[in-house]
Amino acid sequence: MKRLVILLLLTSSLWAQDTASVKVIARSLPNKVILRWAVDQPLAWKNANELGFWIERATISRNGQAVLPIERKQLVTQPLRPKPLEEWEALALQDQNVAILAQALYGETFEVSPPGNQMGAVYAINDELEQRFTIALVAAEQNYEASKLAGWALEDPSVIAGEKYVYSVSVALPQHNNITINNGTVYASPDMHEVLPKPIGLAGVFTDKKVSLSWNFNLLQHVYSNYQIERSRDNISFEPLNGVPIFNAQQPKEASEISMFYMDSIPNNTNFYYRIIGKTAFGETGPSSDIVQGKAEETLGFVPRIYQKELPTDNKVILRWEFKEEGNRLIDKFQLRKANHNKGPFLTVVDNIPITAREITYDGLDRVNYFTIVAMGKNNVESESYSTLVQPVDSLPPSTPIGLKGTIDTTGVVKLSWLKNLEEDLGGYRIYRSYNPQAEFSEITQTTFKHENYKDTVSIANLNKKIYYKILAEDQRFNRSKFSEVLVMDKPDIFPPSSPILDNYEVTTDGIRIYWIPSSSPDVSSHIVYRKSGGEQNIQWEKLFESKTLQDSTFHDSTLQDSNVFSYTVVARDSVGLESIPAKPVSVTWAGKAVKDEDIKFSGTVNRELRFINLTWKVRDFHVLEYRLFKGKEDKGLRLYKTLNGTSKGYNDVDLEINSNYTYGLQMVLPGNRTTFIKKINLKY
After folding, report:
1. Where residue 508 sits, what CATH number does that domain have?
2. Domain Fibronectin type-III spans what residues (predicted)?
3. In this structure, are residues 170 and 182 in contact, taking their beta carbons and an 8 Å threshold?
4. Other CB atoms within 10 Å distance of the CB of residue 389
5. Residue range 279-323, pLDDT digits in tens
6. pTM, 2 dp
7. What's the pLDDT tens digit per position in 187-228?
8. Which domain holds residue 508?
9. Number of C-alpha atoms within 13 angstroms, CB side, residue 637?
10. Which residue, among 170, 251, 179, has the nearest Cα to 4 in the 3D structure?
11. Are the C-beta atoms of 584 and 502 separated by less than 8 Å?
């Protein structure tokens, strides 16, 4: 069930709407559906009252099944209009809201004071219509029977359980007119009946001869439009308090909680019981709330005031206060309360001070003491003085701060923190900074800093590699502690090291040796050698070597095999991983690794039974394109005998003559058509 929000909005916002509409709400009961509606703009409201309203019911569902085609029924035989004035009289005598609504509809004038100019009459007419509109809707919401007399409400007793309806309320506009008022619709069914809830959140504050009641209006504003307050002395017989129902006349934007308040004057020292009952826009009354109980008591209207404090010793204080003599009859005693902080908590340190006393001596002061004098009323009501600070003579400084630590990021933001000092009279801290531990530190706080963490900003771009901090503690008497230990922080390294220089290279039979001049940056941790083969730009650099010591300035690349053009560069890396721009590369042409005699194992085995010679060979770590096998008989020279692919590991020679001496030679063809020497062996068959 939704409330008519229009009743609770300021009329200025209602005038601002572009198109007038009918707003409808419904209440579903087991045996009927009751409706209420209103037009949401003053001029359209006036026209609708003259033309009347049609009410149509559409049955859209029956026992969970859609009704097709939709069954439509007109619930009135002629447009509903306000009843004649004489039919209002009996009900108006019982409820002033009915009389107010009748006056708004039928009264000749509403009292309005127009501006003193020629447009005054126009303003008065507009203001009068707005007042009639607003007051009529508010009055109608307080009395459902009055809404029916006004033609703004209807009961439909012909509903059937299991059916669901859409009710449409429209203004009976003539066919040819220039008035536009949108229809209003609402969904209802006997199956949607809900029991009215109990109001919650009722609270009462009892003070001297009065009680202030409050409750959450917003929580049930969609159910109850107004409330009745009832009071009892015995918790049995309750009587209504407010002559007219209490309701909220505004709806603040985005309000999550709206509290209603009611003030009741009652005698002191008597128990009273309160409850509230909600009333809906349909005239229904819900269950009563939980009961709030209490009694008003006389307030102690006199307050002590500490006006003097005297310190005869470092550990003792004499406090003197003012309190009017006529207030003595209302109190039982005074109390002295003490705390270490102005906001408390305050504990009673001296109790049962006589009501005639105006002075107290307290022995046992701390470094910081806050005192209050409390007058204890006979009805347990307290009256407490403002606190006063008492500090003995103090020349003892706070302890030295400990636990200073910090972080610094690459933007120069420094975050410091330390352990909190435990002195009760601690005033705060002073923070100092330096870029040179031998130079004087500068204070960066300027005033006492009251927290245990601090943010500082420093320049990363200057040449100082470290930054130094220290702090001290200061009490409320401005006594200062010794400095903390100095915190040394390394500034983030955002500058890469300078580049090394490749200044020489050497081609050897085993590879290529390069030489470089190391980076001149002091924070260099290593040098890294990179290589790529060929002259094409898209070939990736390959990491070959990373120096272990800063003294390394040469590297021998012995991993080369085939002839090619090889490029080398060197990069310096510092302690935080920043790398220099690569050194200008050098390109070296390498003819290939020299093949030595021990790199080739060539042997043969004579098999006279099967009449062949088995030749085998093994080559160490060379890329062989093909093998050339040479053969010679007796003392004749070698001639090319066979050409074999680079994966061959041997050959069986069957072209033999008995009792002959043979010489075999093996030569490798390497990339670039580079050929090796011919390795020879002699065999007798």
Report:
1. 2.60.40.10
2. 496-594
3. no
4. 11
5. 999 989 999 999 999 999 888 889 999 999 999 988 899 999 999
6. 0.50
7. 999 999 999 999 999 999 998 899 999 998 888 988 998 899
8. 501-590
9. 2
10. 251
11. yes
